[in-house]
Amino acid sequence: MSSKKEFISFPPGYLGSRPEKFPLIANNDRYFAVNKPSGLACFQHEWTLGKPDLSMALRRELLNEKPQLKKLGVEGLFRAYNLDPELSGALVFAKNEESEALLKNAVGSSQLVFRFHLLVKAETEDREFVCDLPLAKHFHSKCMVVSHRTGKKSETRFRFLRSFGQYQLWEAETNYLRAHQVRVHAAERGLTIVGEDFYSEGDLVYLSRIKRGYLPSKGREKPLYDRLCVHLVEVEFQIPEVQLEPVLAPLPSRFETLLKRLDEYRGGRG
User: Could you report the per-residue pLDDT of 70-101, keeping only the tens digit for each?
Assistant: First the structure.
């Protein structure tokens, strides 16, 4: 693993009107990884039309023979797995066809472990449980539904981490990541994710709601974190034939700030 701070940058127009810069959170002979922000698609499909596409931006830079990518030894763009646009966190790309085959086979064989941190309001007293409801794409809407007839096998293991008064931090772990899986399984088991507006009603957190006596300044108050509070913090490789270090992705800075404020004010009184 490289010890030097490395990054990939994009000019204006690639991922929006502003330039973007992503520090690498992992880099070796087989793959590199970035800490994807919420709002970016991994690739274009019917659910992500119109959203900035990280894979397309990288492909453009490969065609332009971008020095940063050449220096990394990237032979082509090979995504190991998909991460929903609404989620942030570790996104791994293989550097060549051989590594792509290794990682995609590992994903298909449940040899990768995906660990998420999510901030929720819980309607359960359990502190650890498994949800294995099968999931299928809705026929008409851009969402997933539980279906015992047409759904594909899915399993998410949930574990309580700590409390912030009325809010809680949980870990969600799975060996195979389907679209919207963590969000659907959380909602089905009574975990309302902060920022969720589709599968449950998870209101955003404002400082005025958790800090007694706080009055916002003039103008409309902004939430402490305006995204879905789900972040892929770790990807662990359990591939028998090779030893690969896990990829760790720090929480977004505003997500961290939200947790600090909740800790400081104990998440308000509800």
Answer: 888 988 777 889 999 999 999 999 999 999 99
Q: Could you tell me the residue range of the domain that residue 223 belongs to?
A: 112-270
Q: Which SS3 state, helix, strand or coil, does residue 108 take? A: helix
Together in a domain, 137 and 267: yes
Please indicate, yes or no, whether residues 83 and 155 belong to a single structural domain of this protein: no
User: For residue 164, what are the contacts with CB-CB under 8 A and spacing of at least 6?
Assistant: 119, 259, 262, 263, 266, 267
Q: Do the beta carbons of residue 191 and residue 120 sit within 8 Å?
A: yes
| Calpha distance 42→84 (Å, rounded) | 7
pTM: 0.93
- Residue whose tokens read 């999510």: 118
**135 and 203 within one domain:** yes
Same-domain status, 92 and 206: no
* The token pair that represents 133 in the structure block: 């409801």
* Total tally of structural domains belonging to the chain: 2
Question: Three-state SS for 149?
Answer: coil
The structure tokens listed for 21 are 């810069």
Task: Work out the pLDDT band at 30, boundaries 50, 70, 90.
Answer: very high
CATH of the domain at 7: 3.30.70
